[in-house]
Amino acid sequence: MTSFRVGLLAASACVALAGCHFPWTGGGAKAPTGQVVATIDGREVTVRDLQVELGTATFADAKTRKAAEMLALRNIVTRIVLANAAHEQGLDKTPDFAVQKARAMDSVLAQTLQQKIISDVPQPSKDEVQSYMNAHSDIFLERKVFAVDQLRMKRPSDPAVFKALEPLKTLEQIQDVLKAQGVPFQRAVGTFDTVGADPRLVEKIVKMPPGEIFAIPAGDSILLNQVRDTKVVPFTGEQAASYAQKLITHQRTQEAIDRTAAGIMAKAGPKIRFNKDYAPQKPSGAPAAPPPSAAGQPAKAATNP
């Protein structure tokens, strides 16, 4: 085995405050109307607040949307009531709160900038989509579905584990080394579909010599794969074109974010000063810049497991 190829994936999660209970009555106060959907001790919650809470979620029908809006409103009201209680207890005067507040504001501003960059990314034309599909035939017209022998292992924290596997050429050899080192693993048979995989990873895999092993992260584990059979299952039509459009848009978006971030960081560089005990090491060669996203980017597991 000459090297492992690794595609890194990312995921995100959202948590809502839905477990608290509170009365929905407002006593004798006048009920809000129009764009104001609720008030809490005089503070207004508007339709816009609901829209921001829902984010980019889409709904199958008006009934589903209404249910989501009610849950979002419950979350907003709960959050405000709990925040008011924290304020009354003086918790917003603590040093930790000041740090958390600054961190939250910085994060929201950075996310808002990212959303602005994303909104400015142009959608690909039909000709661009077709050219992309032609250039990535292994995903579309000659879509590959690989039957693979797999070995699943926990992602090792010690790079020496991967170093020991580098010269090996079969899963059986890898299995023997893992047994000797006491590293748990499981063997299985699976499939690897080029549709759904990062195009850069696909390009690397199809160019590999027959029998070469490649690695893909799967949560906190690593899947070591060795191709045993390949089928061509064409992926064409409107669904394929829509998929290609999403791939192009994702690529353009990431490039735009990386390019903008690199420019901003370069401009801000002269204004940044570090304590000598925390100063980052100066890079050799090219000037420092934020690295491009590693999502789905192949790399040698020995150096970047």
- Order of helix and strand elements from N to C terminus: EEHHHHEHHEHEEH
| Backbone structural class | alpha+beta
Tell me the span between the first and last alpha carbons: 16 Å
Largest sheet: 4 strands, antiparallel
Q: Could you give the order of strands across the largest sheet?
A: 4-3-6-5
Tally the beta strands.
6
Low-pLDDT windows of residues: 1-18, 286-305
Can you characterise this structure?
By secondary structure, the chain is α+β, with helices and mostly antiparallel strands. Helix content is 42%, strand content 15%. A hairpin with a 2-residue loop joins β5 and β6. α1 packs across α2. The longest helix is centred in the last third of the chain and has 32 residues. It is extended, with a radius of gyration of 26 Å.
Entry keywords:
305 residues; alpha+beta; two-stranded antiparallel sheet; 8 helices; 42% helix; extended; disordered N terminus
Structure summary:
This protein has 305 residues and is α+β, with helices and mostly antiparallel strands. Among the domains are: 36-119, no CATH class; 135-232, Chitinase A, domain 3, CATH 3.10.50. It has eight helices and six strands; from the N terminus they run E-E-H-H-H-H-E-H-H-E-H-E-E-H.
